[in-house]
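Minimal example, chain plus guanosine-5'-diphosphate.
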Amino acid sequence: MNIHEYQAKGVLREYGVPVPNGVAILDAAEADAAAAKIPGPVWVVKSQIHAGGRGKGKFKEADAGEKGGVRVVKSAGEAAANAKQILGKTLVTVQTGPAGKQVNRVYIEEGSDIDKEFYLSALVDRATSRVAFVVSTEGGMDIEEVAHSTPEKIHTFSIDPATGVMPHHGRTVAQALGLSGDLAKQAGNLVTKLYAAFVGKDMAMLEVNPLVVTKGGELKCLDAKISFDSNSLYRHPDVVALRDETEEDAKEIEASKYDLAYIALDGTIGCMVNGAGLAMATLDIIKLYGESPANFLDVGGGATEEKVTAAFKIITADPQVQGILVNIFGGIMKCDVIARGVIAAVKAVGLQVPLVVRLEGTNVEEGKQIIRDSGLNVIPADDLDDAAQKIVKAVKEAA
Ligand code: GDP
Ligand code: MN
């Protein structure tokens, strides 16, 4: 689960991490009061969307002005005017795709006098099973490009969970960023606090770009991006409260209500599969036969008829879907439950596109009989290969 920059800064502030002060607004009517709360002399007006690259982004609407999604200004009046100008407008960045994202929240923040910009991130490193930190002097810019062309400028180390952050980690960061004296001490404190925040809130990723040194000699997080491990949300109601559903795919939100592992993709064939491995194989084989999947969907092992019905409704509600492939290998999952769920969903929402069903395993005969008795126009398939070929052929013929 992702959150906005201003929320991420709020989480980090709880752990004593140095971040600038600011006020977030959702309504242009709040802009003047928000800007007046920041003392100046510099204000930063920041578009809040779940995508990076805002500084270099461009608004679609001409009346949003020429400047990007992050604006540095010299008076409270200008800050408020810019906030009003960009609220509700659509920002296009390298991460939003060409459609862009509507800016529904704006963060007005105290400006910092930047001396140097660095990069810092923390993530769960599966290779070492530890939290790893990545730091670089090349902040503010495209870190992927730095990693590609000058990998020696990227420094990585991981934290042993048994000891936590040790003084030598602080020294590693200070050395990598060329910091000495008090700034080196600040770097050590920062890593300690960021690690505490990361572990305390079950983060999956934390990115600070840029981490800056101000002209006044302070280390500060000027940007913050956090994503949390979704499997841990049950123990963090405060994090769940930060969720902004307008930033998420509506189909994925609906799927999460039923505890379905669903990810929207951009192809034409809707897939309902049980088991993540079989779901991946199903996506691959659809590609092999020349079409693209519209989603990844794992209904799980113990899905109920209700859950299957919900899953099928989510697939059919996607206007991109031109055909549906149900591919179930019944182990714990029972084929008759799947069959009943599919039929219940079709009865509720109708079926405008070809449907191929491949059932195998527990209660397979019962499942097939239920589908035959339903009188639905279902194309039966015997195995995965046959199923993929049939749905691709049906979609091509219907087009
Ligand atoms: P992003 O483009 O979405 O990553 O948004 P950032 O929060 O990183 O802001 C983009 C850029 O704006 C930063 O890299 C900084 O160069 C600049 N910026 C952000 N805050 C300030 C500030 O307080 N003062 C100054 N001078 N520049 C800032
Ligand atoms: Mn940034």
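The CA atoms of residues 355 and 378 lie 5 Å apart. The chain has a mean pLDDT of 94.
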